[in-house]
Amino acid sequence: SIKKQFDQSVRFFDEELLYVLEKQKYIVDNIDRAIENDEVKVYYQPVFSTETGKLCGFEALSRWIDSKYGFLSPGEFIEVLEKYRLIHKIDVHTVKRICQDIKRLKDLSIPYVPVSVNLSRLDFELCDIANIIETEIKANDIPRHLLHIEITESVLTENTKDLREKIEFFQSQGYEVWMDDFGSGYSSLNVLKDYNFDVLKIDMLFLKDFESNPKSKEIVASIIEMARKLEIDTLVEGVETKEQYDYLKSIGCNKVQGYFLGKPRPFDKKLISFIAKNADSSAARIKQIVPP
Ligand code: C2E
Ligand code: MG
Ligand code: MG
Ligand code: MG
């Protein structure tokens, strides 16, 4: 009967909701323990230059490998950690791990490759993230131009003077600041006017219907042309096919990232030998040398 079906779907909904809420509570209660026990890992996804066809860096992406829930992706824990104002715990841990990993490459005499870290707007409120980054960079003797900071477009919408000053401070020190998820938010163009980003990361949403919707192709081409006029480098994320790669190269997109080029991987022997084989040492292009 309809009533029975209804009761069943309500119960199913309740169970789903309960599961999600329990998981969120678990995340909040266990974040410290997970970081301490090294269950929060940094995975690295390669970034390729379309100009050289070579590896030119990585993006650091967090993964939580939990004894109870198994493999947790950022989609499951970033938002809840932001909600409970705990996100800086992951980001501080990630910055430390990135610096240690770059140091390991250095000790192995493998060419440097830059790494981008995703910061949350809240990191600036919840801790002195700039100071923490400086400390880690100095402790591991890493040139600042090897660490890029990704800030997502949506956090820049309320154009506060404070955040702009912090971004400008990072850049004056020699870090690159990249705008993430461009095109997915509301005030993209306004933000381009007010900040000087080193790289614009164009959201993968335009690639979703790339083959079927000619408008998507034109939009991406227009963003890239505009960025070129503003002297900002471009990167398209979520590149999954050779056709997409070839098109992006043909319209002058500088960098690409996506499953076609490589999935995020842990920092292990395989990754180290991949870097040794593919790294283009000139990728750590020095815009401005500021000693650590
Ligand atoms: P994002 O910074 O825009 O990262 C790109 C996301 O796209 C990653 O998802 C990556 O795994 C995924 N991706 C890359 N290539 C492809 C592709 O070809 N196809 C598809 N379908 N997906 C692709 P992930 O790792 O799940 O991260 C999601 C978001 O969570 C990130 O988006 C970033 O905003 C946030 N995030 C990840 N790690 C951290 C972190 O340590 N701290 C903070 N604050 N945020 C993080
Ligand atoms: Mg990112
Ligand atoms: Mg992105
Ligand atoms: Mg994204």
TrEMBL record:
Entry superkingdom: Bacteria
Which residues are in the EAL domain?
A: 24-278
Coiled-coil stretches, from where to where?
A: none
Designated name of the protein: Diguanylate cyclase (GGDEF) domain-containing protein
Q: Which organism is it from?
A: Lachnobacterium bovis DSM 14045
User: What is the covered span of the full protein?
Assistant: 331 to 622 of 664
